[in-house]
Design brief:
327 residues; 1 helix; Jelly Rolls; 4% helix; elongated; 3 domains; Virus Head Decoration Protein, Chain: A; mainly beta; six-stranded antiparallel beta sheet
Length: 327
């Protein structure tokens, strides 16, 4: 014998809990009652329809199915405008705050929690990234939708803040780009070299600094491999924390760069600092000077003229624009 199905208009269910009118409901998991029990669909949850009238627990409740014709009344959880895309909220209400998939579109505006407004079932399945929310169970982001979360992820992956640290301990003094012989310790900086490597204050501030005495312009170099995610079509930026020993001289560097092997020298000039306050300054190596497939860079730093004041350097690093790796 064939079974009959309900094919038109609202359908009766059993209220598992006290239900208000115009609320979203779902079939209660594990129900054995005939007709099945329904309860409120909460934030982000799917639903089968909306209640037409109030019902107490155990009573029959009439539900307008999700696939029924026409518009319907819904209860707002907050304020929203006409045309707002609406999502499921707690206690069977709706909200324009993304949670799960979009379910309705507002035909009337809501001014406050509890307003009853007309809405239409969202005209298509919310597969667009901008209208599907994320659960974010680990509380990793403030983004509410898939689109916003993807933008955040890609902003992190493709950023101009790729970072290559340069230790002051790796800097070496050079002459004609040669680090010197073993007697000169291969150009390693120490407490009696020129320039000198020392703590800012041995008793109170252990931060190390490289100091060039007034008038001294001995260059130092470093060499680092470049990461595979470096975008060689973008600028490479050298960052430095520096200060002047006084206020007479503006201190900074002439920056010479060589990429890979056999490269032609590229010369740039850093920003300068004419104060005794530590400041971050940069030198930009233009994208046009970064060769395709660059895998290593050698950089020399030569102090600009500072005849009166000494020059102090406490940190060096490179920042670069990243790119998506394809394999």
């Amino acid at each position: 014998m064939g079974q009959s199905v309900w094919n038109e208009g609202p359908k009766a269910f059993t209220a598992y809990e006290e239900l208000e009118a115009f609320r979203r409901v779902k079939i209660r998991s594990g129900t054995t009652v005939i007709p099945p029990e329904v309860e409120y669909a909460d934030a982000g949850e799917s639903f089968i329809g909306t209640t037409i009238a109030q019902a107490k627990a155990g009573e029959r409740v009439t539900v307008m199915a999700l696939n029924d014709n026409g518009t319907r009344l819904v209860v707002a959880a907050d304020s929203f405008a006409v045309g707002a895309v609406l999502y499921g909220a707690n206690d069977g209400k709706v909200s324009d705050s993304a949670s799960g998939s979009a379910q309705f579109q507002a035909i009337q505006a809501a001014g406050a929690n509890g307003d009853v407004v007309e809405a239409i079932v969202y005209p298509y399945l919310a597969t667009a990234a901008g209208s599907v929310s994320i659960a974010d169970a680990g509380s990793f982001t403030a983004a509410a939708t898939v689109e916003a979360a993807l933008q955040e992820i890609y902003q992190n992956l493709i950023s101009v803040q790729g970072f290559i640290p340069i230790s002051l301990m790796s800097l070496r003094e050079v002459s004609s780009m040669a680090v010197g012989n073993i007697a000169a310790n291969g150009g390693l900086l120490a407490s009696d070299t020129t320039p000198i490597l020392q703590p800012i204050n041995g008793a109170t501030d252990g931060c190390q600094e490289v100091v060039w005495a007034a008038g001294n312009a001995d260059p130092v170099i470093f060499q680092v491999p470049l990461p595979p995610n470096l975008d060689d079509a973008a600028d490479l930026v050298l960052h430095m924390r520096m200060r002047s020993g006084g206020t007479t001289n503006a201190v900074g560097f002439t920056v010479d760069s060589w990429f890979n092997e056999g490269d032609t020298k590229v010369t740039d000039t850093s920003e300068t600092n004419q104060t005794n306050t530590w400041e971050e300054k940069i030198a930009t190596i233009a994208a046009a000077d970064v060769p395709a497939g660059a895998q290593t860079v050698t950089i020399s730093l030569t102090p600009v003229t500072h005849a009166t004041d000494n020059m102090q350097l406490s940190a060096v690093w490179l920042e670069y624009k990243t790119k998506i790796l394809t394999s």
